[in-house]
Each structure stands twice: as structure tokens, then as C-alpha cells.
């Protein structure tokens, strides 16, 4: 029988900083830039993994952490101390540009383009999947009536149809089998809202 358990890491530390700026170079234009830096490390991340009938739930190919088999050969110590926090890129940033078109009837159309980026990051506590850096680009066109009662917006996300992996996990039932999740591919659509 295989029993799945959830444990917290012992201790960790993190520090970082961020900068954010928004300005209007012209009355109808808005620019925004933001960047964050994050430095993380588990200072104490040690747990026990069972060995049953010679079967190791976590084997050397099933983790990037240090494994030490205990003398009784019934458990092994998994030491991930010194590893960075999972899903915690060192660098993250955003940038956007919005131009507003004023129509003769008082309505407005906003054209927006934006991008976000992340540096590489570990996706799971097995430390097997290190996701590559990526940048995502989006765009939207929004119409607002003069009374601001009606809003119609068309958008497209992940314009380049980039494959972005967001998390990974070792299977609870199949040793050394890693699963990953992925963010949505290119998507587009419309939204309509009305205030009354």
C-alpha cells in the first residue's frame, strides 16, 4: 500500500525588491513598467521517504535532492536544503502601453498592449523540472460609451502561443513519474457589460 503524505518544509528565507513606474508622455497615452527581484532558499528542508520491499518511492532519478538510505533500509532521508523556493523566479516584470481615442460623441476607445516575463524557476519540490524563462504578450481593444454604461472589449492573450509550464509534481502512485501543468495557449474573446 502506498500512502501519500503532505509535509511542510522546515525553514526558509527570502528577500527581494520591486520597482514600479507609470507615466503619461502625452494626454492620451499611458506607459507602465514594473520589475521584481526575489532571492529564496530553503535553509531546512529534510524529510523521510519510505522503502517498501526494496521499492523506493523516491529514487535518484526521481529527485534533484540528496538521498541517504537509513541503516534499516526501510526509509531514506531526502535533503532539499539549500534549494530555492519552488515557482519563485528571481526576476519578474510587466510592461504595458495604452492609447485612448476620444470619439466625437464622447465615447472612448482604449487600445492596450502588455507583456509579462519571468526568469527560470523550479516547478516542484522534486527539483527535476526547471522551467525556461518566458515572455507573454497580450492585446485588447475596449469601447466605452459616453455615459460609461456600455463597455465592449475584444482581447487576445498569449499572442505568440507560448507553452508555459506552471507546476510539476511527482506521482503519488507511480514512482519516478513526473506530471506538469501548463498555462492556457493563445486565447481570444469578447466581453460586453452594461450598467443600469
If you had to describe this structure to a student in words, what would you say it looks like?
This protein has 196 residues and is mostly beta strands. The protein has strands at residues 11-26, 29-44, 46-52, 55-56, 66-69, 75-79, 91-102, 108-118, 121-122, 130-131, 134-144, 150-157, 165-170, 178-182, 187-194. It has two domains: 13-40 and 85-194; 42-83. 0% of the residues lie in helices and 59% in strands. It is elongated, with a radius of gyration of 24 Å.
Radius of gyration: 24 Å
* Cα distance spanning the termini: 60 Å
Structural class: mainly beta
Topology order in helix (H) and strand (E) letters: EEEEEEEEEEEEEEE
Largest sheet: 7 strands, antiparallel
- What's the total helix number? 0
The domain count comes to 2
Strand order of the largest sheet: 1-2-7-8-11-12-15
Percent range for β-strand residues: over 45%
- Can you tell me the residue ranges where pLDDT is under 50 for at least 5 consecutive residues? none
Amino acid at each position: 500500500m502506498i500512502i501519500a503524505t503532505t509535509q511542510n518544509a522546515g525553514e526558509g528565507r527570502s528577500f527581494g525588491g520591486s520597482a514600479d513606474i507609470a507615466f503619461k508622455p502625452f494626454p492620451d497615452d499611458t506607459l507602465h513598467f514594473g520589475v521584481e527581484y526575489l532571492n529564496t532558499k530553503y535553509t531546512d528542508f529534510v524529510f523521510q521517504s519510505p522503502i517498501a520491499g526494496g521499492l523506493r518511492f523516491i529514487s535518484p532519478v526521481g529527485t534533484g535532492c540528496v538521498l541517504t538510505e537509513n541503516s534499516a533500509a526501510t526509509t531514506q532521508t531526502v535533503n532539499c536544503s539549500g534549494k530555492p523556493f519552488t515557482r519563485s523566479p528571481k526576476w519578474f516584470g510587466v510592461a504595458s502601453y495604452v492609447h485612448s481615442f476620444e470619439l466625437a460623441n464622447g465615447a472612448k476607445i482604449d487600445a492596450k498592449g502588455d507583456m509579462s516575463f519571468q526568469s527560470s524557476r523550479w516547478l516542484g519540490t522534486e527539483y527535476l523540472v526547471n522551467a525556461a524563462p518566458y515572455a507573454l504578450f497580450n492585446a485588447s481593444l475596449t469601447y466605452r460609451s459616453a455615459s460609461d454604461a456600455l463597455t465592449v472589449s475584444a482581447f487576445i492573450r498569449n499572442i505568440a502561443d507560448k507553452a508555459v509550464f506552471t507546476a510539476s509534481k511527482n506521482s503519488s502512485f507511480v514512482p519516478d513519474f513526473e506530471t506538469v501543468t501548463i498555462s492556457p495557449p493563445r486565447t481570444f474573446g469578447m466581453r460586453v457589460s452594461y450598467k443600469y
